[in-house]
Amino acid sequence: MRNDRELTPVELDAFGAELDALRKRTLADLGDVDARYIRRVRSAVRLCCWSGRALLMLGWFPPTWLLGSLLLGLGKILENMELGHNVIHGQYDWMNDPEFAGRSYEWDIAGPADFWRHTHNHVHHTWTNVLGMDDDVGYGVVRLFPEQRWKPFYRWQPLWVTLQALLFQYSVAIQHLRLDKVYKGKLSKDEVRPLLRQFNAKVLRQWCKDYLFFPLLALPFGANALAVLAGNGLANLLRNLWTFAVIFCGHFTEQAAVFSKESVVGESRGRWYLRQMRGSSNLSGGKLFHILTGNLSHQIEHHLFPDLPARRYAALSVEVREIAARYGQVYNCGSLPAQFATVMRRIWTYRLPGDAPASVA
To answer: Where are its TM segments located (predicted)?
Structure first.
């Protein structure tokens, strides 16, 4: 349970002004160090992916197959989290480098980046944890807060969540298609058809690359084609599970708050910042851990400043934590195992009917 102090309008304005000033100081300080960092991340992605793919060509020999799969999975995680996600947010648009342009970057997952730019960058980051406005709250198939209206199929949500984790790249892509609106007649099939074509084209491209092109490339090595196919599958699975864990721990822990539509009417800048802080959860860990999460282990800072380079979040977190303390706000941070345990507890608890409000802010 959260124990935040309610802020007066004057305090909210001051709170927002402090965070605005912190953002402006950081923007003014961006430069060569940040550009070198993201280029090194890109190089690390290429090194991991190509090294992994090369090792997979050697076949089932246990050390090389396992190492190849792990390296490829590591490359996919880095590309998805620290490179793709952050670039698509426009964090490096100031470089004026087409390769790191947020509006045109296409990443190595099933969902088209255009889908993510709308459902995540615009909808989710604007309406973080607002029930009925942020589709990321449960992704339409999971009840995570008692304020969500219970439906019979929630009884089986541990199964739905397991499938979602295993196929996470597909679930976040399908979210943009709004198939629920098609089913309810609120969206016509003609409206969704262009999006479905875009989705199918991206999935086909990913499947052809991982499950056709590279396995066929291994044919001269005989049975190694199956080893490459399996290695690519394992790499994608590792990326899906890791991304699922990081994202769910950033939004649905025990102390994460949800909000009503009424609470955001006429929302000021200060209250928007406050909602981002109360609806987010951080993960503690070392530098490598933060890089592997795309610095989404600093989910509070990411929701406060989504367009600032994520490598800056660790330093920003020191000041954000101090500001939160001065204004009597809970700074929700914990280890990955501890935060993940609270998420799993929510999934298990709210699979059954229950209407005791616990976390609406």
So the answer is: 211-235
